[in-house]
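ESCALATION

Customer reports they have been waiting on this structure for their group meeting. Please prioritize. Original submission:
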Amino acid sequence: MQAQNLDWIYLDRADEAHVREGELISAEAGGMPIYQVMEVAKDRVWLRDTRDGADRVSRLDLFHWKAVRGR
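Update from on-call: job pushed to the front of the queue and completed.
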């Protein structure tokens, strides 16, 4: 998925439970980097950077936007 073909929805604290494997998230709407969610466990997410393929683990609350296919 290309970033320009995505719409972004805001993740508030109540929505964090709706982040699933395979989805794309970012700290900023349409901003870089964009990460693919590989696994979710409580307040942590395992991520893959969509540009360079690097894997990392982070706190979910650091990400405020989730990508959705253009509406």
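Sent to customer with the following note: DSSP finds no helices and six strands in the chain.
Escalation resolved.
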